[in-house]
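Dear support,

I submitted the protein below through the web form. The confirmation email said the job was done, but the results page showed an empty box. After a refresh the structure appeared. I'm attaching both so you can tell me whether what I see now is the final result or a partial one.
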Amino acid sequence: MVIGDGQQVTHRPGYLKQQNKLHKHGRHRSKGSVDNLNKGRVPVKTCTKKNRQLLKKEERRNQVAQLRNKKRADYLQKRRGFHDAPHLVAVVALSQSIQYDKVFELLETADNEAILRHTPENHTHISVPRFRQRFTFVRVNRDELFNVLDVLKTVDTVLFVVSVLGIDDWGDVLVTSILAQGLPTCAVALVGLELVLPKKKQESKSQIQKAINHWLPEEKINVLEKDSDALNLLRRIGNQKQRNIVHRDRHSYLLGEAVSFLSNEQSGKGVLKVTGYLRGQPLSVNSLVHIPGWGDFQMKQIDAPTDINPLTSKSRDADMFDEQDIKVLEVSDPSKQESLDSENILDPMDAEQTWPTEEELAEANEERKIKKVKKVPQGMSEYQAAWIPDVDAEDVEDSEDDDENADKMEMDAAESYESDENDAKSEAMESVTVSEVPFGDERYDKEVNFTEEEETLKKIREARVDKMFPDEIDTPIDVAARERFQKYRGLKSFRTSLWDTKEDLPSDYARIFQFQNFNRTKKRIIHSQEEIDGAQPGWYITVHVDNVPEELYNTKGEQPIVLYGMLPHEQKMSVLNMVLKRPNISTESAPEPIKSKEQLIFQCGYRRFKASPIFSQHTNGSKHKYERYFQTEGNVVATVYAPIMFPPCSVLAFQEKGDGSMPLVATGSLLSVNPDRLIIKRVVLSGHPFKVHKRSAVIRFMFFNREDINWFKPIELRTKYGRRGHIKEPLGTHGHMKCIFDGQLKSQDTVLLNLYKRVFPRWSYDPHISTNVKDKDVQMN
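What the results page shows now:
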C-alpha cells in the first residue's frame, strides 16, 4: 500500500489473523523455538482472556519468592502480636480425683528463675526468662459446664489433665461440648502414675493414650510427675503451632483478671470495671461489648494500667493491682456510640407496617361478638351475598359456639390416640425397674418425677407415630375441613411451585432486620475491623462497662467475666437458621425426641440465650418441610428469633428439665441469617377405597360432607403405592367421593391429599441464662 507522499507501508496482521495448523512433523520444540516462530504474536484465545498473563520462568520464580516472603512476614507479625500478651492456658481436669493444687504446684516450681504473680480472679502468671515467654494459667472449675465453655472461648491452649483411673462420664461431656464449640490448641498431661506399680506404668499409659485418641487422634500424652516434666510441658505449650478459630479471631475478647463494680443506688445499675489482656481484634470504646449470660452493654471508658506481668521484673508474688499508674486511652462519645436498640421501630403510617391501636383492637373484638344477619335470595353463595349492602342487616349477639369451634379447630392428631396413651400408662405402671443398689420402694418413688415421665412417654409415642405416618392427621368430624384447614393450600409440586417469601408475614417480622445482601455486608464489616482505632491486641487494659444491673454482679458467683467486642449489627434481631445433630456418644439414658417450639438453651458463638425453635429439613431448594419432632437421628435446621451472628459459628443446644438439669441434646453450626427461608408445614389427609372400578374408585373417610369435597376438588391426589389422581365428583352427603387415577387402584392402598402452609417461630428470645450447670445436673442426651 502506498500513501500520498509515495512512501510504501507494509501490512501488519492483527490479533484476529487466521493461523492455520502446522504439520505435525514429530519433532519436539522448545519454548524458546516456539516464541521465535511466533515472533511475538499471541493467540486470540489468550489475548482476549481477562487478566491473563504468560509469565516466563524467571518471573514465575520471583512471584513464588514474593508469596513465600509475604507468608513469612505475616507469620512473624502474628507471632510478635501473639507474644505481646501472655500465653493464656486453661487447665481442665477430665477426672474427678484430680487435685488442681498439685498440678499448679508443679507448674510454679518448674523453673527456679520463673516470676510468679496471682490475680484476684485466681489466675497464675508465670514469666520464664529462659524461654523469654509469659504464661497465664487459669484454674477452671470442671463442675460448671458453662463456665468451662466461656473460658475456653478465650484461651490460646487448653491443658487437659487425666488421671490413671481414666476419663469419667462428666469428662466425656466436657470433651464433647468443647469439640462442638471449637477446640483451641491443646495438650494432655497424665498425673497419678506414681500410684501404679513400675511394671504396670507403660500399660496404664497406653490405655490412657488409647482413650485420649478416641477424642484427639493426634495428641500425645505428657507425664506430669516432677519439675522437669512440668518444664518440658511449658516448653511444648510455648512452641506449639496455634490453631485458628475463625469466629473468635474476628472479634476482640478479654478474660477478666480483676473485676470490680461501682454501684449507683438510685438506678440499681453501675459501672463494671474489667481488667485483663485484650486479644483478637482492636477494641473501640464507642462499640458494644457482650458478657455471656448477661447481655449487651455500652462502654464508658478504656484505661491502660501498668502491666502486672513484665518479663524482666525481679519482684516475686507482688500484688500489682493496688496503686497502679493508670492512663486513660479512650472516653466514649455519645454522638458516635453504637446504639443498644435491637428491634425495629414500627411506623404506624408506613403502608404494610400499619399497626392497629388498642382502641381499634377493642372495637374489633366487640364487632366479632355480633353477627349481622342478611336476607338474601335463595341459592346465592356467600361470596355473592358479601356484595349486598349492610343497611338491612340485623345485629344478633354471637353465642359461645364460635369460641368452642375455634378451640376444636386447634385439635392435634395426637388426640386420636387417647386410648393408646391409656394403655401406655397401664403398661408403665406394670413395668419393673431393677437397680444395682437396692433400696425401698417409697424412697425410689420420692426421687422419681412421674408427671415428667408421663409427658416424656406421650412425646415418645407421638414422635413414633409421626415417624411411621409422617404428617398424617385425621380429618375432624364435627368441624368442616375447609374451616379447619383454611390457612393451608395445595401445591402441584413442592419443589418447583412458586411461593412468595413476603406473603402473609407475621407482625414479628416488622421488628427484625434483614440485609439486602448478607454476604457482601459480612465481607465489608470483617475487613473494616482492621482499620479500627482504639485499644490494640496485647495491651493490658481496664474496660468500664456502663449500666450493668447490680443484681447480675451480686449473683455471678464463680462465673468468669468474659468481654467480647461486638461487630456492627450484631445487637439487632433477625431470624437465625442453625444446623443441628445429635451428639455422637453412647450413654446409659436413651435420647428423647424434641418437639418443635419446645424451649431450648442455645450457645451460638459467644452468645447464650433461650428460644423456642421450629425444625425443618436440611435440604436444597427454595422450600423446606417443617418437622414436628427432632428425631434421634439425622440433621435438622432450627429457626429462631435471635440477634445477628456472622457464620461460621458453632452452636450447642441444651434442654432444661423440671429438676433443674440441662442435658446437652444437640450440636451444630450457624447456617444463615435469612428471614426469607420458607418453612412449609405439611398436613396429609388420608382416605380409603370403598369401591374400585379399574381407574376410578369411591373414596371415603377423607371428608365427611359434600361442601368439603367441592372445596378441595382442584388439589391433586396421590396414593402410597405411587398412583396419581383427582376428585371427579362427590357422592351423597356423607363424604363419599368418586376419584379418577392414572392406573388400577389396589384395595389395600391409601389415598392421600397434601396441604401446605408457611410457619414461623415464636418470639421467645431470653438472653439471661444462669451458669449454674453442674456435674450432677448435666448428662449427655
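Response: this is the final, complete result; the empty box was a page-load delay. Residues 314-321, 391-439, 775-781 have pLDDT under 50 and may be disordered.
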